Amino acid sequence: MGCDRNCGLITGAVVGAVLAIFGGVLMPVGDMLVEKTIKKEVVLEDGTIAFQNWVKTGTEVYRQFWIFDVQNPQEVVVNSSKIKVVQRGPYTYRVRYLAKENITHDSESHTVSFVQPNGAIFVPSLSIGTENDTYTVLNLAVAAIPHLYPNAFVQSVLNSLIKKSKSSMFQRRTVKELLWGYTDPFLTLVPYPIVTTIGLFYPYNDTVDGVYKVNSGKDDISKVAIIEKYKGKKNLSYWESYCDLINGTDAASFPPFVEESRVLQFFSSDICRSIYAVFGGKIDLKGIPVFRFVLPSKAFASPVENPDNICFCTEKIFSNNCTNSGVLDISKCKEGKPVYISLPHFLYASSDVSSSIEGLHPVEEEHRTYIDVEPITGFTLQFAKRLQVNLLVKPAKKIDALKHLKHHYYVPIIWLNETGTIGDEKAEMFRSKVTGKIKLLGLVEMVLLSIGVIMFVAFMISYCACRSKKIK
Questions:
Q1: Dist. CA 226–CA 111, nearest whole Å
Q2: What is the pTM of this model?
Q3: 3-class DSSP assignment, residue 131
Q4: CA 439, CA 441: separation in Å to the nearest integer?
Q5: What is the rounded distance in angstroms from the CA atom of residue 429 to the CA atom of residue 407?
Q6: What is the DSSP letter of 262?
Q7: What is the pLDDT of residues 370-391, one digit of tens each?
Q8: How far lies 15's CA from each of 21, 212, 286, 450, 452, in Å?
Q9: Most buried among 79, 197, 308, 381, by the most CB within 10 A?
Q10: Is 50 exceeded by the pLDDT of residue 23?
Q11: Is the CA virtual torsion 195, 199, 204, 210 positive or negative?
């Protein structure tokens, strides 16, 4: 009977040891299976989960606009006063609802080429008013003249046309006109004008962004979705040195197995440059653990604070040899127009940049850009891209509308918030196909290991106690 008991205890201990070993072995084996599955499903080719979501996003993406309504236009024109603004908005549009077009696979180079069609549909239910709401904003054409035509004689000629059209430094425009285009009365008087219709995003509907050529990840999963070429080139021709390179993905996804230490690089045609985000914390998004990556303050910092930004400096920056932070001159990308990009309300910008504007209130939580990435797959499940469009206005003695200005202004026109969050249906699918299975596998591993260790220890203690009792 003693033998039976001892044999049973030893058997229990052996079973416990086997379970513990099996649980331990299952960890690396399970990780290998997960890695193999993920590597297969994130490749950009027909039949994968990644390709299905890549061709047409299942997430509804909205672009909200806030207009900076100028309260004291006459005081600014006559006395060069500070510009007082009040933000009006949001005015919301649905964007990125069109599938990628002209998709071409190149099996030799393991790349996929495509264009992204542009389209914007106004969403009244998510807006404070209609597209016909009218505000006082900077006159885009008049403000650009000193930059596009520095010659004094040409400015004098254009000044007569500005006066004839009754144009000034500021104008009244509807939201729709400001964003998507209007026929400018001054430009229509210019002989042989290059354009007569202008707007912050004109033209937009029925246009495309691209051609993009991205890595499919078939040969090397660490390169999946990384942009190889944009419009047939590996660089942009806007900046000097490494600043001109097209780096990373388009931010819709990143190579899988994202770690907190990784710096996520991505290219944005909106700001005509590559940029990056750094780890900012972990959050739970509809039951899915994600890493939040944020655009750091030093991304738009001056070379004094961030020497890596020296090649984003341009001759046109009026900031004491690029010592001011927070604005990016993208005029080369905008055919010479004095367009400057910043974060909303000049978040992280030097005080000199916003000193001539009243009514701005930067709040990091509301105005920073972030990307929420599921770390195993590298898919972006939520994001908020926030930018502000500004024009640099400088004094011009030959132009009556600008001759009384005593200094230059970075005039904020609008700021935008482009957001997208994975839908409930897609989140459920993601939980069941990806994170749910991984959680279940991890649970099985831990249960087997725990039960095995407990059984082994318990049965071995009992066996030792019985042996000790028998000896006594």
A1: 9
A2: 0.86
A3: coil
A4: 5
A5: 57
A6: P
A7: 999 999 889 999 999 999 999 9
A8: 10, 57, 39, 13, 7
A9: 381
A10: no
A11: positive
